Amino acid sequence: MKTNDKDFEITDTVEVAPEIGDDIGQNRFKLDSAKRNFRTRVFSTLVLLVLLLGFIGSGAAYNSLLKNGVPHAELASYFSIALTAGLTGLCVFEMNKTLGFKKWYYQLIIIVAAVFVYLYPVNKDLTNFSFYIHINMDKWLESWQMPIIITCYFLVLMVISIIEKSIDWKNTLINFGMTMLIVFALKGFSIVSLTLTSSSDQTARFSFNTILWIWVMIILSDSFQYIGGMRFGKTKLCPNISPKKTWEGALIGLSIAAIFGIVYVMIFRSVGILENFMPLKEVMIALRGKSVALEVIIYILLALIFPIIGLFGDLLFSWVKRRVNVKDYSNLIPGHGGALDRMDSILFSLFILFIFVWVTSFI
């Protein structure tokens, strides 16, 4: 492991080192190192937001172009799928490297397998978009296929850990669990962004705005947890997992994110011209048919819960790093670390979102 920051490649993990001037209980914005790090984080965040808008926008473009009958509208969905498959590979690459699966041929095998799991449909109703529409899933897709594929993926990891004696079997189990979380989170992203209704008008089933709603809540929560912790933090939240997180910062970030989330969905469900873009559109309209109060309550609960889910995801991914004694998954993004360092909260949130839409598809 390299120790000089200048020698790092973007794929290197960064070892844990003592922080200078990082005491909880003081205003850390007064420290020059904290100010420099904050400026770097802000610049990187602005760049990431631009990329994020393009990423989410591909799903919105697909739905809009298709609804308006634009020729070859499905190309937008192919673009979204290709981006998401690439992001899946990058995230799995960082997780592999962190947990000891570093050799290029191990990486290649595991990444190809992970992307295959991402692309393989879970059921017909949740993959009613793009090329999936044209491959006659009703004739061959069965519910037992995905568990078999996941089992094969697990066996591949186990075989690699047996061959490569340096890989701890516990790290193999962690790698399996975390990569499945990553894969199904990003599968959930594609399903929610792209899936169409079964009706002939081919409108968005869940609305791409669902992703935007959750992602902005996570960004606000993470950002204000950081700012609130830097300015007011005194009580450590999980010192053994994430030493810089404080209860004060967490409460500030979670509160701001939840307030935004509630106001956001209430605007979209209450303003007529925006109703087609309300988050989780099909699910919530079905709930409204049973009880308007139930719809509102579920929206409020989701706005309260998703920032907490994001915080838990942050701590989960941090726990993996602390277990192998690294600070960041890579140094790909200045001031933030790797893709997983930046996306830990949203990945866990998207994973829970996938479970939510998968379960509601049977109701």
Structure description:
With 363 residues, the protein is mainly α. The protein has one domain (12-360). Helix content is 66%, strand content 4%. It is built from 11 helices and 4 strands, in the order βαααααααββαααβα. The strands form 2 sheets. A two-stranded antiparallel ribbon has the order 1-4. The chain has a two-stranded antiparallel ribbon with strand order 2-3. A hairpin with a 3-residue loop joins strand 2 (236-238) and strand 3 (242-246). Helix 3 runs antiparallel to helix 5 (145-163) and helix 7 (209-232) runs antiparallel to helix 8. The longest helix has 36 residues, at 32-67. The radius of gyration is 21 Å and the shape is globular. It starts with 13 loop residues before the first strand and ends with a helix. 38% of the residues are buried.
List the helices and strands and how they pair.
Elements: E1 14-15, H1 32-67, H2 74-98, H3 104-119, H4 137-140, H5 145-163, H6 169-194, H7 209-232, E2 236-238, E3 242-246, H8 247-270, H9 281-290, H10 292-323, E4 326-328, H11 339-360
Antiparallel strand pairs: 1-4, 2-3
Helix pairs in contact: 1-2, 2-3, 2-6, 3-5, 3-6, 5-6, 6-11, 7-8, 7-10, 7-11, 8-10, 9-10, 10-11
* Proportion of residues in helical segments: 55-70%
Give the rounded overall mean pLDDT.
87
The proportion of strand residues reads under 5%
Name the helix and strand elements from N-terminus to C-terminus, one letter apiece. Answer: EHHHHHHHEEHHHEH
Separate helix tally: 11
Largest sheet: 2 strands, antiparallel
Poorly predicted regions are 1-11, 15-22
- Could you give the order of strands across the largest sheet? 1-4
How would you describe the oligomerization state of the chains in this entry? single chain
Tally of discrete structural domains: 1
Output the radius of gyration. 21 Å
SS-based structural class?
A: mainly alpha
Could you give the distance between the termini? 51 Å
Query: Shape from CA axes?
Result: globular
How many beta-strand runs? 4
